[in-house]
Design goal:
Length: 173
């Protein structure tokens, strides 16, 4: 499969993986799953879905595209870009337009748009000259972001993006 077709497939695959990861903590509520899956409906907790789905897809991509040397780097950078895009686009819409009421259609459109933009960037990154060092940085980066998200589940900042407006809680409450 060509890389362009793979990247189109990637948008829908990452979205599908995200849908599954969204319910990880709900299905298996315990300390371990709270580290990797969202424990509430705050915007910040959903970064776990983004990072996790991109990490899973990056591993699949690394296996499928053995000849590309910077697959891990591309996956890491684009997961961060996607998370930033979701927060930058969705937060003002959620706060100002939706008045903190969830709208699944808007949420899905923003998320799909952010994934699509990140996959366009991924395509460009995969066609750049590669360096093995970048993949090592990506592995460390993924680990640090997962640790940061886990810490902020138990020590959330008292900001709107950490607040679950449905349950009226920060983190696990």
């Amino acid at each position: 499969m060509s890389l362009k077709k793979w990247k189109v497939l990637s948008v829908f695959a990452i979205f599908g993986i995200s849908a599954l990861l969204h319910f990880g903590y709900v299905w298996f509520p315990n300390f371990f799953t709270s580290l990797f899956f969202p424990v509430n409906e705050s915007i910040w907790e959903h970064n776990k879905i983004i990072i996790g789905s991109f990490l899973i897809w990056t591993i699949i991509e690394k296996i499928y595209y053995k000849n590309y040397k910077n697959v891990l780097w591309s996956g890491f950078i684009t997961s961060i870009i996607c998370a930033i895009l979701v927060m930058v686009i969705f937060t003002p819409i959620f706060s100002l337009i939706l008045k903190t009421h969830d709208n699944m259609i808007v949420t899905f459109i923003v998320f799909l748009l952010a994934i699509a933009i990140s996959q366009i960037i991924s395509y460009k990154l995969l066609n750049e000259p590669s360096s093995k060092n970048l993949d090592y940085i990506a592995i460390i980066g993924f680990g640090l972001v997962i640790i940061l998200n886990a810490l902020l589940t138990y020590m959330p900042l008292h900001l709107g993006i950490f607040f679950d407006y449905n349950k009226k809680i920060f983190g696990l409450g």
